[in-house]
Design brief:
- By secondary structure, the chain is of the alpha/beta class.
- It starts with a helix and ends with a strand.
- It has twelve helices and eight strands.
- Helix 8 packs antiparallel against helix 11.
- Strands 1, 2, 3, 4, 5, 6, 7 and 8 form an eight-stranded mixed sheet that branches.
- Bound molecules: S-adenosylmethionine (SAM).
- S-adenosylmethionine (SAM) binds next to helix 1 and helix 5.
Length: about 260
């Protein structure tokens, strides 16, 4: 799955780089504020932001961190992030094309590693977390945010289908108990956690991944014909029979390296 999957990631995000730079939900929010508050208390001098996307997390950490490295698999995304961050007058961020499965850093190179709204794209979570643990110094913190997997199997299957139709590079979202177990297996212990709701505006959310009008209409039908309990689980809002928005729950964790 791995190489074909990563080609899919590059295809999806390479064509949507500008949309991610412009995305208000990536640029700010209670979720990013929580990661920043945790990061400030850790006071690391070197931060690695993996799967940096449009670079919003890297930019925010650069405000109080001497060295930030922003890494991403998708080179056009990384170039867009670099132009965006330089355009903000910030020159202290370094950019590196890198797969989370093979981070090119020495053991213990960073005091903090961040990863925001990206792990659901990783083909396998545990090898990625082992890489994170390897590049963190002992006592260093991994600050991670991702879509929270739903406990109810039919709601989880419903949202997985919606996500995959919108973005074929979506793999899956994990539940809190799964995250905790994977982190433990990688030598990371959860020290802090939060759950934050994030509203997705339907047209913007589907448009950001360049879903065609035809596929969007089919996806909308799929959502409208799903059991009401599935729509309720994600607070799907309608106006005149059309989808306006839904809500995701985001899991945020601070896990420290043993
Ligand atoms: C939604 S964006 C991330 C948003 C960003 N972290 C932020 O805070 O705004 C997801 C990113 O994950 C990257 N990605 C997916 N799989 C990856 C992998 N295996 N290694 C590195 N980056 C990856 C994609 O290229 C994409 O840029």
């Amino acid at each position: 799955m791995s190489e074909g999957h990563k080609a899919r990631v590059r295809e999806q995000f390479g064509g949507s780089a500008d949309a991610y730079i412009q995305s208000a939900g990536h640029a700010a929010g209670e979720d990013l504020d929580t990661l920043l508050a945790w990061g400030r208390t850790r006071g690391a001098s070197r931060v690695l932001d993996i799967a940096t996307g449009g670079g919003h997390t890297a930019l925010a950490f650069a405000a109080f961190t001497p060295t930030v490295v922003a890494a991403d698999l998708t080179e056009p995304m990384l170039r867009a992030a670099r132009d965006f961050i330089h355009g903000r007058g910030v020159t202290s961020v370094r950019f590196l094309a890198s797969d989370v499965d093979a981070l090119p850093f020495k053991p213990g190179a960073f005091g903090v590693v961040t990863c925001r709204i990206a792990a659901h794209h990783f083909p396998e979570l545990l090898p990625a977390l082992r890489q994170v643990a390897r590049v963190l110094r002992p006592g260093g913190s991994f600050l991670v945010q991702d879509i929270l997997g739903h406990d109810d199997p039919s709601s989880a299957a419903f949202i997985l289908e919606v996500e995959k139709r919108r973005d074929p590079s979506h793999v899956r979202a994990f539940r809190r108990i799964e995250w905790t177990a994977f982190l433990r297996a990688a030598g990371l212990t959860v020290m802090d956690e939060a759950i934050v709701s994030k509203v997705r505006i339907w047209d913007e959310w589907t448009g950001r991944m360049r879903v065609t009008a035809e596929a969007r209409a089919a996806l909308e039908r799929f959502v409208l014909e799903a059991p009401a309990s599935c729509r309720e689980a994600f607070d799907v809002r309608l106006d005149g029979g059309r989808i306006v928005s839904f809500s995701d729950r985001m899991l945020l964790l601070r896990a420290d390296r043993d």
